[in-house]
Amino acid sequence: MADVLDLHPNQEEAIGGDRAIVFPPQGMACPVPSCGDHIFNSYPGLMKHWKKRHTASIRVHKCPRCPKEDPRRTHITQHLLRHHHVPMNNLREAQLGVTTEVKSNKQFISPGDILPPRKSQDAAVPILEPVGAMDLDQAMDFYGLDL
Prior knowledge:
The protein is an alpha+beta fold. It has helices at 9-17, 43-53, 73-83, 91-95, 136-143, and strands at 28-29, 39-40, 57-62, 69-70, 99-104.
């Protein structure tokens, strides 16, 4: 009979994160081979790329007045102001008509079994949450901490 390890979702994520490479201080290219060799100088830049290219579905916001849609709600707000000439005093009302939809990402490139890089080595430390209620003393004992 196979052994089963029952993990909290945060622990599963932390274990999976151990397989991910760490983003180096000098920057790095996307680890997905079909992405090319552009060097991302910042972790947020690489994560923005990952979200845009390696996520199968994306959330888009739709203009209530035309077919325009964009992943960034702020771009739809700017669109309402510039292209539909919505006055600032009516902007909030116009924004209420903006709808959000999850769609297939047309720019998707499958990362295969490659995980996105971690920000730092510290990201590999699992986040453990005890099951059930504990007071501070019990939690300190559980995590092996002293004050």
